[in-house]
Amino acid sequence: MTAPPIADPIEIELPDLAATRALGTALGAALRPGDVVALSGDLGAGKSELARAAIRARLAVPDLEVPSPTFTLVQTYEAPALEIWHVDLYRLERPGDALELGLEEAFADAAMLIEWPGRLGDALPAARLDLCLSVIGAPDTGGDGARRAMLADPAGAWATRIEGLRP
Amino acid sequence: MRILGIETSCDETAAAIVERDANGRGLIRANVVLSQLDEHRAYGGVVPEIAARSHLDHLDRLIAQALEEAGSGFDDLDGIAATAGPGLIGGVMVGALTAKAIAWARGLPFIAVNHLEGHALTARLTADDPAEAAFPYLLLLVSGGHCQLLAVEGVGRYRVLGTTVDDAVGEAFDKTAKLLDLGYPGGPAVERAAERSARRRAEAGEETPRFRLPIPMRGRDDCAFSFSGLKTAVRQQLERLDTPPGEAEREDLAAAFQTNAARSIADRTARACARFTAEVAPGRPLVVAGGVAANKVIRAELARVADAAGMTFLAPPLKLCTDNAAMIAWAGAERLALGLTDGLDFRPRPRWPLADLADRAPPGAGAAAQAEAGA
Q1: Do B351 and A145 touch (CB under 8 A)?
Q2: For the domain with range B137-314, which CATH number is right: 3.40.50.300, 3.30.420.40, 3.40.50.12780, 3.90.1210.10?
Q3: Name one GO cellular component term (chain A) (predicted).
């Protein structure tokens, strides 16, 4: 069996919050059981906002309450034929802690949106989508700053889907 | 009646013994919380003992300690209450299974308690006179993981008036403290930095604040909260500085954050007061619960808001605002007093919004009926 083709990393400019949400919506539509999306970026980069848009889109509930999982660590959502885990490992320091959350079992069936994935260390599955948000420039008003998303597919799990995430 | 309460739904492992007399007056006989704050600080961040195994390791000892402090044995108990959600399922299972095992072995009623209901009913445990915190009242629950305004109309009867659309306020405090390198825990660190900023600016005669931040959701026609944008605005202000921020700048930014977080909470709560007065009843108490209730600036704002709305302001002691088992034991006692118990087949619920408790309210009994029942 040949290895799946590995797509080149792609870069998406997100000029405003609406663009971040649109990327989240596209991501939500593309999710399949067993997916792992590693959402990285600094505090305030827009990770939770993007995950919220993905979950709302997949559950088709535009005003669904999607609280930050920082304190609860995990929030789960039932979409038709798909369970979505919204995970935030910000508060953890040891990879062992993350495994205690039952993530390993969930990797098989659920679609996982994982913030602060670096906390997993080697336990982060290779077959995943890396989505890194960074802030480019600071606007003078509000929190609607421009972002850039870097998407990478290190093991070919998203080979046929990554291009579909472009606006 | 005397109830053992168990709390294991998130970071804390806790056990407590609480009594409730026939008049609805509460008495805490023991309240033990395994907090590892000093160890956490060594890491410069939170290292939650989230693991189910950790709860398992400590729970038996905490229960034994609570019984000893209360001068009780299992034979003196009238019921066993445990948090059955919402929370991390592993931890919740440990607490609920332990409670069920004790209840089964001793032939005692088991009461599955919603963690948020524990917070919602705490004011009734700590009130000097049960009449002070009779139903209905308006509750603001502000903690690391929650930020909601609720109409509390009776045991099991909660109506959400507003909740956060993104981060909880305690989380915003923690993340702001991290951005500003102020240390952990974030809430007290931001509060102390803001106090230093105010002192220095008063001495220097500075009147105009150095930083301007948005007041989230102010003036909106609902009772929702949002703190993600405020946190991001702090980060943007930091990045706009030409040089790495000095201590004075970080403290001024902390002060600006705290002021606007408090103003936002005050604005949202004032709106909820008006709605509660119109839709439920005038002149009822405003109750605050959750760890963020410790913040003096927020407390002062809430007292002002309650006063302006013609409501009394009730804030339970801080020790009972953060996660604890006394509130779980008390919620168990309130339920048991109304004849509400649960089967040993009750399944813990990782997601369990308070609004879903309607099926767990006493059948056909509203606030008035509960009041007559001595609740």
Answers
A1: no
A2: 3.30.420.40
A3: cytoplasm
Res. B251 pLDDT band, cuts 50 70 90: very high
The interface residues of chain A toward chain B in range 62-121, judged by CB-CB distance below 8 A, are 65, 67-68, 70-76, 91-94, 97, 100-102
- Picking from B88, B171, B235, the nearest residue to A101 by CB comes out as B88
Contact A100 B53 (CB under 8 A): yes
Measured from the Cβ of residue A66, the count of other Cβ atoms closer than 10 Å reads: 22
CA distance B111 to B8: 15
Question: Which amino acids of B are annotated as binding site, given as ranges?
Answer: 115, 119, 141-145, 174, 187, 191, 295, 323
Which residues in B have their CB inside 8 Å of a CB on A?
Answer: 10, 43, 45-48, 50-53, 86-90, 143-145, 163-168, 170-171, 174-175, 178-179, 214, 228-236, 239-240, 350-351
- Is pTM beyond 0.90 here? no
Contacts of A101 in chain B (CB under 8 A): 50, 88, 90
Instruction: Let me know if A88 is exposed, middle or buried by CB neighbors in 10 A (0-12, 13-18, 19+).
Output: buried
Nearest to A101 among B50, B179, B233 (CB): B50
Give the CATH number of domain B2-134+320-374; options: 3.30.420.40, 3.40.50.2300, 3.20.20.80, 3.40.190.10.
Answer: 3.30.420.40
Token digits of residue B139: 């509750």
In a domain, A161, yes or no: no
Amino acid making up residue B315:
A
* Model confidence pLDDT, tens digit, residues B167-220: 999 999 999 999 999 987 889 999 999 999 999 999 999 888 889 999 999 999
- The CATH 3.30.420.40 domain(s) of chain B lie at 2-134+320-374, 137-314
How much is the pLDDT for A39? 98
Q: Provide the ipTM.
A: 0.79
How far is it, in rounded angstroms, from Cα B58 to Cα B34? 8
**Contact by Cβ (8 Å): A34, A108:** yes
Tell me the residue length of chain A. 167
The verdict on residue A165 lying in a domain is no
Which domain, by its residues, includes A93? 13-155
* Chain A environment of B234 (Cβ under 8 Å): 44
Q: Is A89 inside any structural domain?
A: yes
Q: Does an H or E element contain B329, and which?
A: helix B326-337
Residue A64: closest CA among B214, B85, B227, B351? B351
Both structure tokens of B165: 């659309």
Torsion of CA B170, A70, B62, B67, to 10 degrees: 50
- Structure token pair of residue A136: 């480019």
Token readout for B59 is 């729970």
